[in-house]
User: Fold this.
Amino acid sequence: MAEPIRALRGMNDILPDEAERWEALEDLLRQWLRGYGYRNVRSPVLEHTALFRRAIGEATDIVEKEM
Assistant:
């Protein structure tokens, strides 16, 4: 039998009522930052562990404990 899919540690869902408040805050911050010339960048939320191993080495707290 396949293992059940579990949420990643530290990754929580934002449910509809709370999402509305987050969106309002994000809109306010976007308007404020746009006034200073900042623009949006979209980067991946998750990366493969191999990327970090290659960049910072395998024997670090980040790779050993956090991944």
